[in-house]
Write the structure tokens for this entry.
Amino acid sequence: MKKITILSLDGGGIRGIISCIVLRYLEELLQQKDHPNAKLGDYFDMIAGSSTGGILASVLLYPDGNRKAKYSIQKAFDLYTEKGEDIFNVSLWESLINPFGLFSEKISQDNLERQLRDFFGDLELRDLIKPSLITSYDIENRKAKLFNTINAQQSQQNFLVRDICRATSAAPTYFSPVQIRSSYGQIFSLIDGGVFANNPTLCAYAEARKVAFANVLENPFKPNYPSVNDMIIISIGTGTEMRSYPFRKYQNAGKLAWVSPIIDILLSANAETVDYQLNQMFMTLGKRNRQNYYRINPSLRSASPEMDNVKKKNLEALIQAGLSYVEENSTLLNEIAEKLIKNKI
């Protein structure tokens, strides 16, 4: 039997460029080792994403006319580097009347929605080429809303991909919440899935346990309802940061002072906790299978930790952070590529 290969992509706004750089190198390895036109979407059995990771997942699983992956990761990289400034742009007037996003969302959603509409058009969730899991949070019903390709194909819970991407990237204080409608007419009021799963790897694992992959992928060599023993999981972050919050500065801080730090702490702590849990799960396996979980989260180095810093200097710093990781971890990435080739359908 072949393993179920799962790719999980963290949130992080424009820092998704780092994920693109790592994935581009991985895709180039697949092209060298397996097929010159290899695309990542054809090598993973499930792709999960939160926020910017949800957008990347949707790009990778976009279908061509033969139900194969249409786009390489380079398409997503181009989207970030060419359209990122438009998406995250804040005009001088907006910064004057709404300094630091204190009175309404920091960034207008209009540019983001236009770019998503132009790219995804009327593509539906059920049409993605593989099982997917994209996160968001329902603020009216106070529960997680997980967008699943399998559910979309088997029920009326189908959505436009552009609406899902808008929902998963509706980061509080950056973009306003959004209301989207299912194909059945049900309305959901949603914000960024990163508020509960900025690292969606554990969500992806839980969802994969429920999927009859052999049936869905029409391949008898893939297991139905896989256990952790049957999985290869690659989890990619958008950069680690070492920002410190001094005790003296915050021991008497009020709500306003805590807004930015608490968001930062919640997002990073969430990702670290999920990584710990997955590591512990895989450590219960035999020596060979315990090596099938990979957490890739490059150092930001000189890049800004801000999710909306689209200055040219910072974009280059994000690219360099990704390239530095690739150079220092080429052996590891080669190992992952070999496993993906061995386990592809």
